[in-house]
Every structure is written in structure tokens, then in C-alpha cells.
Amino acid sequence: MKALRSLLGAAALLLGGFAVVWLSHVPAPWPVLAAAAAPAPLDVRADFLAVGRGHAVLVRADGAAVLIDGGAPEAGQPLVDWLRAQGVDRLADVVVTSPTDEATGGLIPVLESLPVGRLLDGGWAADCALYRSLLALAGHRAIPTQRREQGGTVQLGPGVALQVLLPQAGPPPAANESLVLRLVAGGVAMLLPGEMGATQEAQLLRAASGGQLRAQVLEVPRHGGPGSVGAGLLESVRPTVAVVEVPENDPSLPDAAAMGRLAAAGVAVLRSDLHGSVALTTDGTHLDIRLVPSPNPVAFEPRLAPVLSCFQGA
């Protein structure tokens, strides 16, 4: 396969916050085995939403919608309104990648407002108030809660799946162990590490083999904080695009050294504080990248609070 020829096909200035500003066609960066018959094109969309603190990703495939995290509590109702405006009236799955307030807080209004098929999480034993409230709400609404761990798969449709890369199987993980996911849609992949720290990154790199981590899109863990983008991770993933959810009014984020490593590797960086929400669509072969209006950003007043509540360690 020839080297990647181009990352972004066109760019335009934001006009009133509503203009489409990025378009791209990025071929898969790894070999694809020849098949007897060409598979039918996929129709998969992943929205990385600018929700202030925390992050939220909506994945739509084969007529179903899966929400990964929901941001902090103040993001909840605007997120519900945005989902309804998008025509999402039911969620097949809600996936929680961390028991922190910035992953779980916005999900409580979602579970209160929309039908949800399953709540998938890491099965943490952490004493995090909002996480415990979320589990109690799921029980009250008769939403099955299922633990996910390394080696598991969440099938989203033909040719589309969320692979669970961490945490490792065994006892309930600690609060600082994130659910690390890889979204695979045909020949296109996106790595979603959540709040993965240095310890989990080392586990991930040790366990990965044969291009298992390769992905065109990398969601930068921990808001692009110090040490969030290691050389080993970049070499294993080899992304062409990185998405960074950056809390506004936090001058320490993203870390300049982390952003420098991405730039040196030729990775295009999209930041929520600068670019807003990012919509990625793929047919399983090509990837289209657009910047889109965020879910009522006026409601997401940045707060100088701990970036990760109920979270300790790396």
C-alpha cells in the first residue's frame, strides 16, 4: 500500500460557528486482506462532543446509537437536548469509561430522559458518589448493568465493533483504571483511551501485538495533560488525526510537550476548546472529518474545579 498521500482535503474558516470546516479522505494505514467480494459500505458516525469538563462520544452505526461517557453534571441536560435534536430517541448502550464525575455526571439526566438498552462499565469498586448514583438509577429503571474488561467486544452492527482493550480481567479495577476502547469500522479504527494513565499505557503496549492498536484517530487521554502522548503510544497507534477534549479556562491544558510530540509525528490535532465538536464519518474505507456546532455550548460554563473528581494516581 502506498504511503498516506493526504490528511485533509479542504479547510475553511469558521463562519458563525456553523460552517463545515474540515473535510478529509484518509485511507486505512494498514494492509487490508483481499476478499472474495467487496463488503457493503458502512455508515458509521462518531461525534466527539465539546462538553466543557470531561468528554462524551456518540457513535451511530446500523441505525443504533451508543453514548460513551457524558461529561460533568452541567453537561447533562444540554446533552439530552442535543441528542433529541439529532433524532436520537433511544440509546442501545451507554458506556462508562471511568467512575469520575467528569464521565458519569452528565449521564444521569441521559438515563432519566431516554430509553437505554444497557449500561456498560468497568465494574469499579470505587466510592464515587455520582457513579454510585448512576448505578442506582440504572437499577431503578431496570437497565441491565454489565462489566466489560480486556478481550471483550461490543458489537454495534455488521463490521462495526467496540473492542475492550483494558482494564485487565480479574478483580474490580481501581478508580484510576479506565475502560480503554478501540472502535473498528471496516478498515477504519479509532482508539478511545479515556483517562488512561502511565500505568495503563504500559499495560496496553505490553499486551498489544501485530498492529492491534493501529488507528487513524487517537482520542488523546487525560485532556492532553503531561505524559498523555508517549512515544510508544504514538508508534503503536500511528494516528493521522488526534482529538483532544480540553477544558476551557485551564491554561495548563493541553500540555505543550504532548502537543509537540503529535506535531512532530505529523498528526493533525483537533481541540475542543478551539474547534468545538468533531464529527467523524466513515464507510469503512475513508474517513470524513467535520467540525460541527456543539450541544448548546453556552450552557457549559467552565469551572475551575478538580479536572477529575474521585480519581487518584496515574
Description:
With 314 residues, the protein is an alpha/beta fold. It has a single domain (43-295), classed as Ribonuclease Z/Hydroxyacylglutathione hydrolase-like (Metallo-beta-lactamase, Chain A, 4-Layer Sandwich). Helices cover 20% and strands 26% of the residues. The chain has 8 helices and 17 strands. It has helices at 76-85, 101-104, 107-113, 129-140, 198-207, 231-237, 256-264, 272-275, and strands at 10-11, 22-23, 44-49, 56-61, 64-68, 91-95, 116-121, 145-147, 153-157, 160-166, 180-185, 188-192, 217-219, 241-244, 268-271, 277-282, 287-292. The strands form 3 sheets. Strands 8-7-6-5-4-3-16-17 form an 8-stranded mixed sheet. Strands 9-10-11-12-13-14-15 form a 7-stranded mixed sheet. α1 (76-85) packs across α3 and α3 (107-113) packs parallel to α4. The longest helix has 12 residues, at 129-140. The radius of gyration is 18 Å and the shape is globular.
In terms of topology, how is this protein built?
Layout: E1 10-11, E2 22-23, E3 44-49, E4 56-61, E5 64-68, H1 76-85, E6 91-95, H2 101-104, H3 107-113, E7 116-121, H4 129-140, E8 145-147, E9 153-157, E10 160-166, E11 180-185, E12 188-192, H5 198-207, E13 217-219, H6 231-237, E14 241-244, H7 256-264, E15 268-271, H8 272-275, E16 277-282, E17 287-292
Parallel strand pairs: 5-6, 6-7, 7-8, 12-13, 13-14, 14-15
Antiparallel strand pairs: 1-2, 3-4, 3-16, 4-5, 9-10, 10-11, 11-12, 16-17
Helix pairs in contact: 1-3, 3-4
The strand line-up of the biggest sheet is: 8-7-6-5-4-3-16-17
> Number of helical runs?
8
Q: Would you report the number of β strands?
A: 17
Q: Any idea what the CATH superfamily is called?
A: Ribonuclease Z/Hydroxyacylglutathione hydrolase-like
Q: SSE order, as H and E? A: EEEEEHEHHEHEEEEEHEHEHEHEE
Q: Output mean pLDDT.
A: 83
